[in-house]
C-alpha cells in the first residue's frame, strides 16, 4: 500500500472520529510529529557507550566503557546502555535494534531529513552486535557489566568503576533467546543498509544466519545459563521459542530463502504461533512475529502465512474497544495499560504494530466477530496513543523529555541526573552520586527525546527519580515509537 494512502484527509478523518467518541482532538501537526521524531532519535545519543564521535549532539555526555571486553581479551566497546543504568544488556539492546530497523523499513520514506540520523543510531547498535557475535567462534557475548554491583551505585557512565564483567552464551551454556533476537536485529538491519551500504548489509546478513544457526542448534534459555546476572532484570520469561520464530521470520524477510519458509512451517506450531498473546515486548515476540509474517499473505498471497493473518486479526480485535474479542485495558484518559512498570513500552510497540498492520492491510479489513475493522480504525487507535504520550492526556504533560511545554524533569537516569563531566570534571564516586538521586532539583542534563515509563492505570504520574517504574526511560520504549512518529510526520496533514 502506498505510504500516502491516508495522507490527504487523515487529520480530518481522525479528528472527526475522535470528536464523535467524545474525545479531544489535539492540534498536533506534521511539524510537531517531525520534531518529536527528531528528538526520539536524538535520545539514542544519550545512551551511547564507547568513544563518542565529534558530531555528538547531546554534548553533556562523554566517553565511557572504553575497556569493555578487555578482561576477556575481546573488543566490546560501544553499543547502548539500555535505560538509566550503566549495564549493556544484550537482549533488550538487540530487540531495540530490531525495532529501530523495522521502523526504518516500514516508515523510512516518511522520515525525510531524519533518515540519516535513524540509520546512524541503528548502526551504533549493530556495530556492537557484530563484535559480540564474531569475537569468538561458538560464542555470543550478551552483557557487559555486573548489574547487581551497578545498581548499588549512582554514578554517571563516564565515572563508573563497578566491575565490567563480560557474560556470554556458548554451545555449552546456550542462550537461544538472546542469540535469535540478535539474529533478528542483524537481519532486519541488513535490509535497511542493503542499498546504501551493500557490503555492510552482506556482513550483517551473513552474521545473522550464523548466529541463528547457533541459536537453533544449541537450544536453551539464557536465563538458565546466566540467571544471577540477567534475572530479575531481563529474564526470558516467555522462553526462547518465540525468539527462534521471530529470528527465522526476519531471516526469511531478508533473504527470501525457502529454507526459512520451511523452518517457519515446520516449527511455527510448537513455537507459540497457535497462542494468541496480546503484548509485544523485548521479552515476548509472538504478536510482532504474526504481524510480520502476515505481510506475505496480505501483499504476496503466500498461503502458508494465512494462519498468521488470522492470529494478527485476533491481536487487533483485542485492542479495539467495542469489537468482538476486545480484551485490552485503557486508562480513563485513553492510554493502553498493560503493567505498572514501564507501561509505555507496551504502548509504543502496540502503536507500531497497529500502524504496520494497517499498512499491510491496505483495503483489506480485520474480521472481529460479525464486524470488520478497517485500516483507518487502526490508525485512529494508534494516533490516540501517540498523542497521549506527546501531551494529549489528562495531565496535559508530554512523557517525552524535551517535547512540549511540560515534560518530566526528574527522570531516573544516572547520566542525566548527575552533573556532567564537562561541568564537574572531578570524579563523582559510587556513593556520592546518591545525593543527586535523592535531590528535589530537576536533572541538570536534559536527555532529549527520552520516553519515560509513564503514568499508572488512573493516568497518575509521579515525576520522581525514585519511582523508576514511571520515571525511567529505555531504548526499547523509543525504538518502535520512531516508526510511529515517522508515519504521522508524513501522513498527518493534507499536502
Automatic annotation (TrEMBL):
<keyword id="KW-0732">Signal</keyword>
<protein>
    <recommendedName>
        <fullName>Endoglucanase</fullName>
        <ecNumber>3.2.1.4</ecNumber>
    </recommendedName>
</protein>
<feature type="active site">
    <location>
        <position position="472"/>
    </location>
</feature>
<dbReference type="InterPro" id="IPR033126">
    <property type="entry name" value="Glyco_hydro_9_Asp/Glu_AS"/>
</dbReference>
<dbReference type="GO" id="GO:0030245">
    <property type="term" value="P:cellulose catabolic process"/>
</dbReference>
<feature type="domain" description="Glycoside hydrolase family 9">
    <location>
        <begin position="33"/>
        <end position="485"/>
    </location>
</feature>
<feature type="signal peptide">
    <location>
        <begin position="1"/>
        <end position="27"/>
    </location>
</feature>
<dbReference type="GO" id="GO:0008810">
    <property type="term" value="F:cellulase activity"/>
</dbReference>
<keyword id="KW-0624">Polysaccharide degradation</keyword>
<dbReference type="InterPro" id="IPR012341">
    <property type="entry name" value="6hp_glycosidase-like_sf"/>
</dbReference>
<keyword id="KW-0326">Glycosidase</keyword>
<keyword id="KW-0119">Carbohydrate metabolism</keyword>
<dbReference type="InterPro" id="IPR001701">
    <property type="entry name" value="Glyco_hydro_9"/>
</dbReference>
<feature type="active site">
    <location>
        <position position="412"/>
    </location>
</feature>
<dbReference type="InterPro" id="IPR018221">
    <property type="entry name" value="Glyco_hydro_9_His_AS"/>
</dbReference>
<feature type="active site">
    <location>
        <position position="463"/>
    </location>
</feature>
<dbReference type="Pfam" id="PF00759">
    <property type="entry name" value="Glyco_hydro_9"/>
</dbReference>
<keyword id="KW-0136">Cellulose degradation</keyword>
<comment type="similarity">
    <text>Belongs to the glycosyl hydrolase 9 (cellulase E) family.</text>
</comment>
<keyword id="KW-0378">Hydrolase</keyword>
<dbReference type="InterPro" id="IPR008928">
    <property type="entry name" value="6-hairpin_glycosidase_sf"/>
</dbReference>
Amino acid at each position: 500500500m502506498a505510504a500516502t494512502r491516508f495522507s490527504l484527509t487523515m487529520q480530518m478523518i481522525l479528528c472527526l472520529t475522535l470528536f464523535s467518541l467524545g474525545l479531544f482532538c489535539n492540534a498536533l501537526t506534521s511539524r510537531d510529529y517531525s520534531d518529536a521524531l527528531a528528538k526520539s532519535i536524538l535520545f539514542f545519543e544519550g545512551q551511547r557507550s564507547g568513544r563518542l564521535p565529534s558530531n555528538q549532539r547531546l554534548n553533556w555526555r562523554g566517553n565511557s566503557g572504553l575497556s569493555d571486553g578487555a578482561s576477556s581479551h575481546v573488543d566490546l566497546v560501544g553499543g547502548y546502555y539500555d535505560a538509566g543504568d550503566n549495564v549493556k544488556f544484550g537482549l533488550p539492546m538487540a530487540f531495540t535494534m530490531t525495532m529501530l530497523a523495522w521502523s526504518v523499513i516500514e516508515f523510512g520514506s516518511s522520515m525525510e531529513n531524519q533518515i540519516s540520523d535513524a540509520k546512524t543510531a541503528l548502526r551504533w547498535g549493530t556495530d556492537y552486535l557484530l563484535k559480540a557475535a564474531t569475537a569468538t567462534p561458538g560464542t555470543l557475548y550478551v552483557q557487559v557489566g555486573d548489574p547487581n554491583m551497578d545498581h548499588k551505585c549512582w554514578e554517571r557512565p563516564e565515572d563508573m568503576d563497578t566491575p565490567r564483567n563480560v557474560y556470554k552464551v556458548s554451545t555449552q551454556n546456550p542462550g537461544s533467546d538472546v542469540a535469535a533476537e540478535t539474529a533478528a536485529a542483524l537481519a532486519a538491519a541488513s535490509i535497511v543498509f542493503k542499498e546504501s551500504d551493500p557490503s555492510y548489509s552482506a556482513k550483517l546478513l551473513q552474521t545473522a544466519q550464523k548466529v541463528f544457526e547457533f541459536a537453533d542448534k544449541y537450544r536453551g534459555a539464557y536465563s538458565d545459563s546466566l540467571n544471577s546476572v540477567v534475572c530479575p532484570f531481563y529474564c526470558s520469561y516467555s522462553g526462547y521459542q518465540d525468539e527462534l520464530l521471530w529470528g527465522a521470520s526476519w531471516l526469511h524477510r531478508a533473504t527470501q530463502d525457502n529454507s526459512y519458509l520451511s523452518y517457519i512451517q515446520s516449527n511455527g506450531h510448537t513455537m507459540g504461533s497457535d497462542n494468541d498473546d496480546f503484548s509485544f515486548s523485548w521479552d515476548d515476540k509472538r504478536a510482532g512475529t504474526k504481524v510480520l509474517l502476515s505481510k506475505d499473505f496480505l501483499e504476496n498471497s503466500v498461503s502458508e502465512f494465512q494462519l498468521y493473518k488470522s492470529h494478527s486479526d485476533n491481536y487487533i480485535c483485542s485492542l479495539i474497544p467495542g469489537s468482538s474479542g476486545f480484551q485490552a485495558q485503557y486508562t480513563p484518559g485513553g492510554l493502553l495499560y498493560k503493567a505498572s512498570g514501564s507501561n509505555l513500552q507496551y504502548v509504543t510497540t502496540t502503536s507500531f504494530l497497529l500502524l504496520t498492520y494497517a499498512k499491510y492491510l491496505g483495503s483489506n479489513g480485520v474480521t472481529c466477530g460479525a464486524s470488520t475493522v478497517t485500516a483507518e480504525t487502526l490508525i485512529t487507535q494508534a494516533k490516540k496513543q501517540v498523542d497521549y504520550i506527546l501531551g494529549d492526556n489528562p495531565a496535559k504533560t508530554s512523557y517525552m523529555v524535551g517535547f512540549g511545554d511540560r515534560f518530566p524533569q526528574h527522570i531516573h537516569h544516572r547520566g542525566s541526573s548527575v552533573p556532567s563531566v564537562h561541568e564537574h570534571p572531578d570524579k563523582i564516586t559510587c556513593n556520592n552520586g546518591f545525593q543527586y538521586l535523592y535531590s528535589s532539583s530537576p536533572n541538570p542534563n536534559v536527555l532529549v527525546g527520552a520516553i519515560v515509563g509513564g503514568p499508572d492505570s488512573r493516568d497518575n504520574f509521579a515525576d520522581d527519580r525514585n519511582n523508576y517504574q514511571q520515571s525511567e526511560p529505555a531504548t526499547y520504549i523509543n525504538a518502535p515509537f520512531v516508526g510511529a512518529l515517522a508515519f504521522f510526520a508524513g501522513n498527518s496533514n493534507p499536502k
